[in-house]
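FIELD: query
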Amino acid sequence: MRGSSLFIAVFGSLLLTACGDGSSPSGGDDRTAAQFEQLADSMADGGDYARAEALRHAAMIVRLTGDPTSVTLTIDGQSRRFVAVAEELEYPNIVCHWPVDSGIVFPDSGGTMPPDTASGRPDSCEPEGSMRIRTLIAWEPERLAEVVRLVAMDGRGFVAPAVPDAMAGTSHQGESWGGGVGTPTDPGMPPQPDDSAVGSPPVNVGPGFMAEYLERDQDFWISVSGSQANTLEQEGGACRLEEVEFDWARYACQSIQVRFEFTMRVQKLVPIPFDPMDPSGGPPMPPAESRDIGLVPTSIAGARLSLLEWLPPPIDPPTPGPMPVPSDSGSSAPGMPGGG
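FIELD: result
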């Protein structure tokens, strides 16, 4: 997990630059946004491109919003002061049209390619409809020592597998990091139907969400269970910029207030032990470490991004393969038998 080790080193260097004056962020928090961008650049250098895009997205929302909102998170029962910004993003549903001879119109689903397409590239990819996704970015304000990101459909929902990380963007097909299946002990989790078999996974009702917790010297933690609710409380104000371009699109920006609440369990990501001399064995996995994080209902200032224009890069034509050798040419291509 090269990106995980890199995260610890970079977070340590950011802490040195972040605690120069110890003041709370203000005026759009350009300083904290720059720190998010530094961290994103280092993630990209380590090959973690999707998470790098998510952190750049966080930097953009921090800049657009203005002063962040003071919030109180509970981490394993301890109250902690963080600051936070919220977002409502119009996330396009990208549909790719494949070559005519394939007869396929294929919605984007995390980069999966239809098994019977004749070409490795689509003819075009365009947005067909969209969904409203709300995000929360909270961080420890004095040193940026901890960051919480939550991505959810609007309304109430539970941690669920395969919820796209909209902050990573459509250029990475909204790759998902956190996810699990809600359990009957999750606050607000509806009971299972009477005919559900004992031991069967519970029914996941309503829109899902994913979350990620980043902590100094502890690496990445991802959501495995929990519930959240979000409600739009105020809209119509001005952002620091009226329009912004990112992730192959141009958006209009309005300031908003979103009421968030959540309680969730996050689990630490650890490297998988691997012995190259014994690929089938190796040391046992360490026991999973988890933490419980919560936020009481809190109204948080943020930005609404509404899609104005889709600006995808051009799709390169497929590279032609080697020309076939005529069967009656009497010659041999490298690695092929002769025509005789």
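FIELD: remark
Confidence is low (pLDDT under 50) at residues 1-27, 108-119, 181-206, 329-340.
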